[in-house]
Each structure stands twice: as C-alpha cells, then as structure tokens.
Specification:
Elements (H helix, E strand, L loop, with lengths): L3 H8 L12 E2 L10 E2 L2 H13 L1 E9 L12 E7 L2 E5 L8 H6 L4 E4 L2 H10 L6 E4 H7 L7 H9 L1 E2 L16 H12 L1 H15 L2 H13 L22 H21 L3 H4 L2 H10 L4 H5 L10 H16 L21 H4 L1 H21 L3 H4 L2 H9 L7 H10 L4 H15 L4
Parallel strand pairs: 1-8, 2-5, 3-6, 6-7
Antiparallel strand pairs: 3-4, 4-5
Helix pairs in contact: 5-8, 6-8, 10-12, 10-14, 16-18, 16-20, 19-20
GO molecular function: 3'-5' exonuclease activity; nucleic acid binding; nucleotide binding
Protein name: Ribonuclease D
InterPro entries: 3'-5'_exonuclease_dom, Exo_C, HRDC-like_sf, HRDC_dom, HRDC_dom_sf, RNase_D-like, RNaseH-like_sf, RNaseH_sf
Amino acid sequence: MTDAQQTADDAAPPTTEETGPAAVPLLAPREGVPEVTADDAALESVVAAFAAGSGPVAVDAERASGYRYGQRAYLVQLRREGAGTVLIDPVACPDLSALGAALSGTEWVLHAATQDLPCLRDIGMVPEQLFDTELAGRLAGFARVGLGVMVENVLGYSLEKGHSAVDWSSRPLPEPWLRYAALDVELLVDLRDALEEELTKQGKLEWAHQEFAAIVAAPPAPPRKDPWRRTSGVHKVRRRRQLAVVRELWTTRDHVAQRRDLSPGKVLADAAIVAAALAVPADVTALAALPGFGHRMGRRQLQQWQAAVDRAKRLPESQLPQPGQPVTGPPPPRSWADKDPAAAARLAAARAAVTAHAEELRLPQENLLAPDTVRRLCWEPPAGAEPELVAQSLRSLGAREWQIEQTVPLLTQALAADA
C-alpha cells in the first residue's frame, strides 16, 4: 500500500498504552521471496493453489502514486494457508478475474481496504466479504492504526516500511522491494485473528462486521464534480477569470498526464497553476517568469500552457466558473449561527453528545457516526424528533444499525434541546 498518511502514521511516536517490549524485526517471508507471477501459465498455477487453500486470504496492492497517472495496481500480493505467498504483476497479467472467482466465498483480509479495492476492482478482483485490519484497529480503540505499528503493537514484530513510496511501475522490481511487498501480507491474517479476539472481548465484533459489509456493498465512487477545484492553493484565487485559468491549466495538465502516463504533479505543479492564475500572464515571456515555469521548461511546453491561459482569457462572462463549489447539503457549520441559530444549537449539542459517547466506547468519533451525517440530521431534523424518526433519518443517510443503536438516544435528546 502506498499512502503518505499511512507512512506518517507508522512514524508517529507510540502512545504509552501501546508501548511494549522491543519488537522482533521481521526480515524475510517464512518461505522466502516468491518469484513474480508474470505470465498466463504461472497465473493458472496461482489460481489453482489459492482455490485449494484454506481460511482467509491476505490481499494487498502497490500503486505508483506520485509517479504514474491514475491509481492502477502495479503489484498484487496475496497469502493464504496452503497456498503460501504470491506476487502478481498486473501489468503482465491485467485480468485477474479468474483468481477473484477462485476466491469466491473467501474472506479477504486487507489493511485500509478502501485504498486498494478500486484498483483491485479494475483488474477483476472484487471481494464478497472482507476484514479490514485498519478499521478493526480503530473500532478496537488503537490510537495508531498503520500496518507497521499495528503488527508491532499487536503481534510483536517490526516490518520495514522504507519502500512504501517507491515507483512500483518500475521494471524489473528490485528484490528488496519484493521482500517488502511480501512481508506486507505475511502476518495480515495473524493480525486479523488477534483483532477479532480483541473486538470480541470489547463486544464490538458485530459492529466491525457491519462496517466491513458496508465497504463490500458500496458502489464505485462516482467521478468528482469539478476536480480542478481541488488544486492545492486554489483558495488564494478569488476572481472568476482567474478561476477559469486554473480550470484550463488543470484540464490541459490532466490530458497531458493521461497521455504520458505521468502523475499530474510531474507534468505541472499545483503551485505553478495557482501562480499563473493569479498573474494571468499576457504572453509566454511573462509566463516563463513565474514560479514553476522556469528555464528548464521548453518553449513548446510554455506555449501549451500559455494557450490554456489565453483560452480562459477569451471566455465570455457566462462561462466563467463561480467562486466556491455548489452546496448540495447543509451550509458550512460556521454560518449556522447566523442562518439558523436553532440548528446551530442542535449541532453543538449533538456533536458534544456523540464525541463524549465515542470516548466512552474508545473509538474515533467519526467511526461512531460520520460528522456529515450529524450535520445533515441537525440541519433538517425529522418532525417531532421521535426516536424512530431519528433512526429512519440516520438509516437514510447510510448509518449502520449498530451506529443507530448507539446514537439515537443521544441525538433525540440533542434535537429536542431547542424545542
């Protein structure tokens, strides 16, 4: 898994309650580093072995975030009792649907499943049931839930995490990278078993099962609306014409990145897009003087970016983007006191109650109930604020039954506070 937040989580200092005896370094998989499966014949053998295996299957995927366009998988790792560990090259073997079918009915064990499931789905691997060790750790009350720190605190082994941000699209993959990838699934089922035991002790296992089922049932995420608005630093851009420059440069960059299969940030930095939007350069010479468009950039590239700026400059007023994103739900909470003081009071009471109960249960507030769900409920509460009506509202907003059971009494009281 290649996620900067995950790496930072692993690097965070341990809390007192998580610090135990020195961990034993895990330096190599118990059966050694397997050869990479990279042809149809080898894949057939893998499918047969995993179909004949027993118990849950540990699954992980490595992407090339920051190097390549999109979030495709460049290595897939699996481990199952009776089948051992395999490393599959999804570039050489782009269709793993036969392997997915062979694992039908098998529980998949992933760490931070929502990160890897989209790229696994793209190559034909979709679980019917899963166990997410990161989410299980959150529900069990662990302060840090990165894979490395979880394996260390729960199982007593330390994993090397030095290759999490490498370019997994490279070929051939170096042996140390493959060893790291294999170790990511080496103890995943062991971690799953230990967390299941802990959740059972805390009376939270059924909660976890509901959460895992919701992940499996969730449809693929729809494309983001106006993805250019997520450009880092875009909040500095106030005028509509300048926003149009951001949009044109972002769209041009995205086309170039997709065509060249490069991370958009390697084509043009977000900071350069914002600088050009604020300056709205008159020509290539002015553009070249801006940060991010320096002497290393060829004239043809500069002309490409200036053409995007010029398109934005020619747009009629009616086609310029509006500042801010269209609001589809409640307004930002900071404005509630002015817009609807009663709703602001409901939200304050609901937040306090949910936060306090989450602390009692030793789990993050957002796992007890999503903040957006709390906001939407408080902005448009059901008439009468009866417990069953509150439960229906939560259900319609996607809350799981265990969340409804835990929060309806609290929220009913909070909603009635201003009545």
